[in-house]
Amino acid sequence: MEAILFYLLAAVTLIGTLCAITARQAVRAIVYLVTSFFALALIFYLLGAPLVAAFEVIIYAGAIMVLFLFVIMMLELAHPEKLAKPRLSEWWPALILMLVVIGSVAVLAAARQPAPPAAFHGITVREFSVTLFKRYGVAVEVISMQLLFALVGALYLGRRR
Amino acid sequence: MTVPLYHVLILAATLFSLGLACVVAWRANVIMMLIGIEIMLNAVMLTFVGGSAQWGIADGQLFALMLMALTSAEVSLALAMVVYLHRRKRSVNTDDFDSMNG
Amino acid sequence: MKIYLSLMLLFPLFGAAISSLFGRKLPRRLVETIACAAVWGSFVCAFLAACTYRAPEKVTLGDWLSAFDLLAPLSLYLDPLSLSLAVMIGFVCGLIHVYSVFYMAKELDYARFFALLNLFVFAMLTLILAENLPLLYLGWEGVGFCSYLLIGFWYTDKRNADAGRKAFITTRVGDTALVIAVAWLFQLTGSLSITQLNGMAFLLPGGVITGIGLLLLVGAMGKSAQVPLMVWLPDAMAGPTPVSAMIHAATMVTAGVYLLARMFPLIGGSATVTAAVAVTGGVTAFYGASCALAQRDLKRVLAFSTISQIGYMMLGVGAGAITAATFHLLVHAFFKALLFLGAGCVISAMHHEQDIFKMGGLRRTLPLTFWCYLAGAACLAGLPFTGGFFSKDSILAALWLKGGGLYRGLYLLALLTALLTAFYSFRMVYLVFCGENGRPHVHAELKAMQWVLIPLALLGLFGGLLNLPDYLGGGFLNGFFARLSGGAAAEASHLEELALQGVASVLALAGLLAAHLRYGGKARAQRLKESALSSSALTMFLLNGWYFDRLYHAILIRPYQALSGVLWRRMDEGVIDDSLDRLAAGLGASGSWLGGWTTGRISVYIFSFAAGGALILGYLAWLTL
Amino acid sequence: MTFDFPILTLLILLPLCGSLLTLACRRSDLAARRVALFFALAELAVCAWICLASLPAAPAGAPAGFFLFEDAAWIERFGIRYTLGMDGVSLIMVFLTAFISAIAAVVSWKGITERIPLYFALLLALEAGIQGVFLSLDLFLFYLFWEAMLIPMFFLIGIWGHGRRIYSAVKFFLYTFFGSLLMLVAIISLYLMHGAQSGSYTFALGQLIHTSVPYGIGLWLYAAFLFAFAIKFPLFPLHTWLPDAHTDAPTAGSVILASLLLKTGAYALIRFGYPLFPEAARAFTPLLYVSAVIGISYGAWVAFAQEDMKRLVAYSSVSHMGFVALGIAAWSPVALSGALLQMVNHGVTTGALFALVGMLDERTHSRELATYGGVWGKAPVLAFFFLLFCMASAGVPGLNNFVGEFLVLVGTFRVSPAAAAGAFLGIVLTLVYTVRLVQEILFGKEKKPLALADLTLREGGILAVLAVVDVYLGVHPGPLLELMKTPIALLTGGK
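The joint structure predicted for all components is written out below.
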């Protein structure tokens, strides 16, 4: 049951993403992408990461995509005639790259498949938080600093002259 | 968890390469390029989470979280820059910004 | 003895140093006095050395080259050969110095002239007295250097300077052979000392001696203007006349003969070498005499006659008659210096006109010069009982006595040359001194210059006394040189000797007669008329020295010059440098091609980055497969 | 009597300090000149003192033949030591360096008008570098000085040169630097090889000599060394940087380049190349012969075609250094003595010729032969010196070059008659181009009126000193030969 669900969700994710990257309008692309991220969040949940799934929905599908939408609207890029769509010839290198990457990863991953875990259990929020703040305290601090810098940088870039 | 890690990885790889294709192909639009980057980052997160599930360790999920934080920082800056550049050149085409030409 | 020898060298050296360093500051008279005094001082030393001479002596003055087993100290060697030459050089050069004082009275750059003249004497004496080959080479090159600068003394005329250059380079070709011989000898024996080398002749294999002998011969050819390296000497007449007298007649050009005589104990053992020397000498003697027949320039006549006479000396050496060769060398020095100095008087009197067909009538206006010149010409022609007669005859006798087809042939060639010699000598005398059409300018210096001729004329005429034939009481030189290896000449019966001398004197007189018939009296005017017209091909051939100059120009000089340009432009700048420049340009081009990837377009960078990553991934996958 | 005073370090530091002090004289050009000259002369004085002082034959710890020796740990981790040593050969070269540097300082007294303090500072720095090359006995130290020498020269050509100076400077730099890099590779491989064999990793020449290098590898390593040295020499096909560098360098730069820099290659070949790889060196001897013999004749031949005086003299350097290479290739006591003597002689004579050409150039602003003619009448003193040095260069005996060439030829003939025979041609060809030079400049008529003053006292002084050295070495080379006797005997195993 879970497996079928996983494959379904995977299909949704992939189709959503595909639609997103081939979309005619940036806004549509964002909407497709949000769909795809929702499916991805569910996959996270399936993989025993409810917290990450929640954050995926909140931060990605919620905050970041909305940010994108704002910018798109601000720059008035929503009109299709303004978007220079990539020509087919520009897709070819991208396709080749895709094939190489997928093929290589498939081969590499197939080469050493670890045995499935004996007893799968999700990771509890408690376990997660303990690891985060005990082992990776410094990283948390660094990330917070980085967010601060990003904030300052964005403010600096966005001010009017 | 009944899905083998292999399949998760294949999904992640496909997702990643879609993002890559987006970045490579959409040279005319910075926004789409950034979207491609987001897709790739999500693929990476999927890999992390998959690994975490495979071995039952929290670290993978943790890195996914950190990635998210990182991404938000990146996106905020990048979009600010897009706005800034658009204001200067009235364009989002990356090929217009070639002042790094050697 | 040591003091004499060192002073003999030091006097002229100091003279040269003073003249060259301070000459332009000192008064003219002082420079002239110093120069003359230096040479005469040198002569006095040589004379005193001759008076006290007992046996061959080796004197070491100091250290020069000593590297491991190579030893070449500043050491001198005095034996009859070097002693007699040193005395002759001192005397002749002394006279020529005095002569030059008057001859160059109008010249402003007298300091340079006398400095070089003195330096020349020093180098020549070093050459003569050197005990080892490097020191000999020092003198050898030193005289070449002085000759170079003295020929081009009037350097503002390009032709003079070119003549000097020609002389220097041509003789350098010979010198190189000499250096090779020296190096070879050192390789074989580990010694450079002439006395030691001469003593080692029996240790060396015959083939090697032949090789060394031929190399020495080439060296002598260069310095002594023998065929085929003789082209420089006629041109060398571009120098002032005293220089021609001193360097290109009396002393330097005989250095080659001296070298062969000096090394004779070593090289005399090889029949090939002596034959080669003799053939060179014979051919040169004939070549010189034939060319002298057609010359119009007074000094060039003398130059070709010098070539010819040195050829005789080489014949003497080739015949193994060192005494005869040296005898002729000494006498020739006297009478050839006399002829040149006389020519100098004539040229000076004729307002520097050198064409003999434009001269004449000097017999009456310059009687002293005429008589002295006549004496010189008689010696040159080998008229009986002059010095030249005895010396030339001793060479002819030696050739005859050597026997064998080759030497008999050479003897006949030498006889023919003697005939030609007598002819051109008197052709010259008749053209210059007889007739009427000269308007000489007799100035005060000229009168003084003439006096210098007298001692030389006496020495030339009575030089035969140095070495009279046995039937006249025997010679001084024969006895003096007897102990020298190769010095003792083959003995001829009195009768045979008389017969040989008879033949020679008949030929000389025949030459005189022929010259008289063709150029004497009325015929002279006729010849003068003819000379104004175009000359025959044969005359042109002889006048231009058998066109050797043109030949060398075509086969050596032109290709050399052309090739030097080709080597530079095509080879050096073309191939070697250009290939590197191309390499550099190629590297630069490839760099800018790579730089072309730096388009500044993010899309390109991203694609390259992604492609690189994909490639790495692909490679890893390929490894796992 | 022991010498604890580090006199060899002083020899290197003295010019270096002088260089810094000169650089400090920003205010007054005259002061800069004077300081530079003072230090150059002080260096010369130290050298003279070394010659005159009777030094003990062998100080403690010194290799055989060295009478001054300094050794101190430097970078111990890599076995790099600060080892300096002086034997007869290096004393000669060091003395030559001090002498020529002083001359170069005086030569450029007037000719340089821009950035004078920097110029003299570079000149002294160059001197320090060259002294270091001649003194160091540690391969790393040697390499350091070897490279350090390039930098001042590069700037001297690039800043104060004429014509295509940047091109020439870069060419010079690239050429020599390329060679040195190959040498560095060889040095490091030798270092590793020795370390692997003996367990002690060191750059000391005295120990590296004992490394047993496999024949095949030795060939490669020696080839790398030889390549670096051959470029400096310069040997036949690697010489094309020289005419350009010489032509475009300032006068003093040409003097130093010809007199000293070219010598470092020869010196290093004698000091490092042959002792480190005796077998490989023997294998390469025919190549060296061929290159030397071709270089002698080819240089002389090409020199004949030149229209530019400086270029002519530069090609003559190629020819003369061919004799040095020939002497080294023969590696017999006599030939090697000749080669060393020829190094000194070429340094003095060619240096003087470059100085003379520079003086002519300063007066008429032309180096074309075609401009000149009849200089003898205009400037007799200059002409006198010109002739003297030309004749010395042509190897007229009694002047210095003859002595060296003669010893080289005779010594080489002993070992390899064929090689020497090829070189004899050079005797004639040398005269041909020299006489052409004399002819075109001194003799003939003035082609066009030249404002040609005779020598000033300063110029005359320089040339007179050089001329005295020329004649002295030509007549009495004994002291030099005596000095180099012991080292050469040790190097060649001769008597």
